[in-house]
Amino acid sequence: MSTRPLVGPLVVVGDALLDVDIDGSATRLSPEAPVPVVDVEAGWHRPGGAGLAAALAARTHGNVVLVTGIADDAAGRHLAGLLASAGVRVLALPMRGSTVTKTRVRAGGQSVVRIDRGDAVPLAGPLPRGVADALSEAGAICVADYGRGVAALPALRDALSDAARTIPVVWDPHPRGADPVPGCRVVTPNEAEAQHFCGAGRNTGEVLRARWGVDAVCVTLGARGARVFGPDGARTHVGIPERVAAGAVRKDACGAGDRFAVAITDALAGGADTVAAVTAAVDAAARFVAAGGAAGVSTPAPAAHGSPLADPEPDAMALAERLRGEGRTVVATGGCFDLLHTGHIRLLRTARELGDALIVVINSDDSVRTLKGPSRPVMTADDRARVLTALACVDAVAVFDEPTPERILDRLRPDIWVKGGDYTADTLPETDVVARYGGDVVIVPTVAGYSSSALIAAARSTQ
What we know:
Layout: E1 10-14, E2 16-29, E3 36-49, H1 50-58, E4 64-69, H2 74-85, E5 88-93, E6 95-96, E7 101-107, E8 110-117, E9 121-122, H3 131-136, E10 140-144, H4 154-164, E11 169-172, E12 186-187, H5 191-198, H6 204-212, E13 216-220, E14 226-229, E15 235-238, H7 242-245, H8 256-269, H9 274-290, E16 299-300, H10 313-325, E17 330-335, H11 342-352, E18 357-363, H12 365-372, H13 381-389, E19 396-400, H14 406-412, E20 416-420, H15 431-436, E21 440-444, H16 452-461
């Protein structure tokens, strides 16, 4: 696809996320609960949020800059690589926390569940070098606010307000995000968002235009196109061309809002008026959905099951070090976790409530075989780690090779080490390590009747 330069860069501002799709088939229900079992067939990943908007813009422009924050963890480095591969230049804002990752599990093309992880937020302060210059020199600016804090940064808002006096700024708002800065050329809420901001009614766009002090509000209406509310009560409906609408029926609309916003930004940068820009964007978004939506900018995930975190241990160490530096409490627990059951869930939830983050250390496959025998584990360490990291109460997972976790605890140094069972602190081999660096040991009683070994043995006896 050919590219064409703008007078200045097309600058996208907002919260970059990591999107992961796990595709498979579901032909049976789980014996543990009335939920479908998804047999994984493929995994896909792509930049999400403002990252997706930037990646879409880069498909037609040779100069796209993304102002965002990217956390220093494995998922963040993975996201940065995806953006670089898409041809996006990132101007990074300082961050704390872990990369926000949204994982959609789909079966037969239908979404089964979405799993959200990560708590990254940008840090307020002066803008890093180059950000103000990029905004002031932009051909046009698209703010893709996903409610994670970038669009609320005071210094960035000041720079955007200055830019809006002379440069077209398109603002795609979020219900949990910041108000658009005054002077934006177009603000693009969808119908539900517009009603969230000011209540139901046909004049929502006029109310919002006056409230925000912007040139125009364009309320997107899905398959019905968009309605533009301009100065002096001007109102224009833009429908989807019939030849395009037919191809978009019942297709995955993920990313359509981002495609719409960057298409308006592109058209305004080229000198189009607002209605003409919206007309071009409606057509572009409908074509985007008809062509498969965000799937068209996704690439196969490198790790099995679509996970971008092939090696969880470095993340665990980095997380513990960062939280200690912030004076927060790190909790850890460990075990084989070969077959997750109710007892494990109670242990993990209890442990997580004791601090600010929970890191689970699990025995490697060789370590499990040493402890449990040659027929174990029934799940590999990678699979056990993926199951655990999918739980909301687990922040990171690390794998150790020894029979007991003393060595990894000496590196991890959690403030609290939680162990489940009928132990006492003085009978645990790792107590001396924890005490040596000043940590505490907490024992959580087991739930009677639950044991991975017993459950596995019972399952095998029925085969």
